[in-house]
Amino acid sequence: MKDARLIRTALIAKLISLTIGASILWSVALAPVRRAAAGMHPIWIATNWPFPMDQWGTGNAFTCKAADCGSEINVYLRPKIGFCSCTSGVADDEELERLADFDLFSDKQAAAAPGRKIEVGWMTGRSRPYSFLGSLRQKTALTIAFNARCDAFVATAVSGGDHHEEVEALVLKFLNSDVVIGWAEKTLGL
Asked: How high is the mean pLDDT in each 10-residue block of the chain (190 residues)?
């Protein structure tokens, strides 16, 4: 009986140690991304839309210099009115890829990680990092699409590097700014 208690106590102690260890490792793994994004004070500057007119028209372009964002990030943002699934919105990676502006950058791309759910203002959508294949101009991109009913907004953030989590944190903070939310409301006639 005494041996059973001793074994049980030892197992509980090991379980607690493993749980604490896993928590510490998880915090350490995410700390650099949180610290880097939190410590930055990005300055987003509006620039000219660099792409030719297509069926969606032109959009808005913004840049954040490396000194402000850790590496230069260019964000290209435009609405796609009436082009989103009215019932499910941007609910999965297939819908995100259907809405994406890949053709502006490259005809070949590969997902670098699974997509994830995001929020921009009152809207929901998805975000997913990609690499453009065979393109010398851009290294990686983050595609974000979010919707209000049947209307979608698509943002493509292009940066040089594989720091997707940090770029996503900075871009989502920008997309949730008064500048972008006000533009989205005006675009939707709200």
From this structure: 61 50 44 49 94 90 94 93 83 88 80 92 93 66 90 90 86 95 88
Domain that holds residue 28: 1-39
**How many structural domains is the chain composed of?**
2
Q: Do residue 182 and residue 143 come from a single domain? A: yes
Query: What does the pLDDT read at residue 18?
Result: 44
Are 99 and 182 in a shared domain?
yes
One DSSP character per residue, the chain reads: -HHHHHHHHHHHHHHHHHHHHHHHHHHHHHHHHHHHHHH-----EEE---S---TT---EEEEE-HHHHSS-EEEEEEEETT-S-TTT-S-SHHHHHHH--GGGT-S-EEESS--EEEEETTEEEEEEEEEETT-SS-SEEEEEEEEETTEEEEEEEEESSS-HHHHHHHHHHHHTSHHHHHHHHHHTT-
